[in-house]
Amino acid sequence: MFSIKELFKIGLGPSSSHTFGPVKACEYMKSNYNADYYDVTLYGSLALTGKGHLTDVSIKNVLKNCKVTFDFKTKCEHPNTMCIKAYSDYKEIASHIFVSIGGGQIEMDGKKNEEKPHIYPHSTMDDIQRYCREHHLRLNEYVNQFEKEDFDLYMDSIFEAMIQSVKEGLTKTGKLPGDLKLDRLANALYQSALSAEDSIDRNALLLASYAYATSEQNASGNVVVTAPTMGSCGVIPSILYHFYQDQHYQKKTLIEGLKVAGLIGLLIQENATISGAKAGCQAEIGAACSMAAAMIGYCQTQTNEQIECAAEIGLEHHLGLTCDPVGGYVMIPCIERNAVAAQRSVDAARLAKYLRNVRRNRVSFDMVVKTMNLTGNKLPIELKESSLGGLAIVVK
Length: 396
Prior knowledge:
Layout: E1 10-12, H1 16-32, E2 37-43, H2 44-48, H3 55-63, E3 66-71, E4 81-88, E5 91-102, E6 105-108, H4 125-135, H5 139-146, H6 151-171, H7 186-195, H8 199-219, E7 223-225, H9 235-246, H10 251-271, H11 276-279, H12 285-299, H13 304-316, H14 334-358, H15 365-378, H16 391-394
Parallel strand pairs: 2-3
Antiparallel strand pairs: 1-7, 2-4, 4-5, 5-6
Helix pairs in contact: 1-3, 5-10, 6-8, 6-9, 6-10, 7-8, 8-9, 8-14, 9-14, 10-12, 12-13, 12-14, 13-14, 13-15
Catalytic activity: L-serine = pyruvate + NH4(+)
Family: Belongs to the iron-sulfur dependent L-serine dehydratase family.
Cofactor: [4Fe-4S] cluster
């Protein structure tokens, strides 16, 4: 598996697969070819929801002099496929096929990112757990053993970016961009939380407001962190912010927990996918909930087995979740879904803490990741980030 640095990335929203990834592809073309014109063709989900995801706008911001074509008919192996051709003096000088595989990561011409080193010797939770038992390691220590020396500094920057996305989002009011004309709700939710008399309501509303804050920042094209994607970027930051500002956890503890969350995300990407266009929202929100539950488990000093159980619960109960963005925007149901998943990650960690004390889980984390991948393959294209089904055709 690659470094967690490949999973957590800071960038502009609203979509890691539909804007962040294509932007990286365009930057590659721009830096490698002395071209004066580009022809970009988007296929599959990139074409179907490209307008709402600002894919064409992001591409033109990088390449400037270019034509963007939405091809709705050509079938590709991966739904997030694009072709970029570079021209100089009206002659084609380069042509590459890019695939945006999720989380802002891209592959070119069928190559599986072979230039990026695999730093982890294991690719399943079962193998990692076995190694940790043999060497008496917690999951964060396992991560620290294989990441490079600059990793802590990088994770500190990720932590700060997540905290900042919540802070900025809480201060914003008005409407989100786009045709849906949705109001920003993070600030209103936060004010409601402050006036809540019941402590349970207060904490739940605080958590929701933080998830809304980051998700609204993303929907507005502002800076967020892929966690593991931009469509699910509100879940982990909401937990971090709540634990840091309201529950007064130490920053060091939270960053170590963030490493554990990253490990869970890597395992999901390695053995399934984190792309909504590939497997529905179970691959994005489900993955984020799983990662956040594992992070909470670590921060609450749960055992490795309890942490695995928390991650498994977080993902299992999002199986089959569809990706059906209304109008192609990362807004409905995406923003509210981030808030719900944040709540569920807390529940998953709590449940795992006590369940794992009384019995061994029948369903392992590896099993549920495999199941998510199989389920994603069975979902019709209408329910995988195409805006051709589900809420996208019911909500007007």
